[in-house]
Amino acid sequence: MKKLLISSLFASSLLISGCSTNHALLNFKKDNTRNSNALQFTKKNDIKINNEPKVQFFASYLNKINRDFKNSNEEFIIGVYLINSKTQDFLKEGFTLTLNGTNLLSKVELDGKSEEIKALPIKNPWGKYYKVKFEKQEEGSLILKLEKPTFGQTQLNFQK
């Protein structure tokens, strides 16, 4: 009797858990191709010192995510998490951000609870998010580079 009870509880728990929602796809609407583009044009990389991550850097290339996004600039939403830093402002901490060697035109900090951030496929609740703009680049490869002489660098590669 005890074995029958245990096996029926086990079978019912498998049945119930099999009907649960797939959390990996929770933020994606079935008819929304923008989210699949966001996943395709979002990249992440770290700066590591002695094999230990010191900076987490991720970016979404807005010009590719939204096909209707026609702009004279290259725009990204970036997230930067500076591990063991109180300010979390990468520019105040001495980092530079370049796109194919060109300097940043503008940087606007985004609220972590904004709709733009909620739509991102990669998030870090401790990092800061910014919408950044660069001059329009020629066709081809885009190299978004975050660097600081004492830390090193990381880069994310995108195709136009």
Automatic annotation (TrEMBL):
Signal sequence annotation: 1-24
Keywords from the named record: Signal
Superkingdom classification of source: Bacteria
The protein's name in its UniProt record: DUF4352 domain-containing protein
Source organism (scientific name): Malaciobacter halophilus
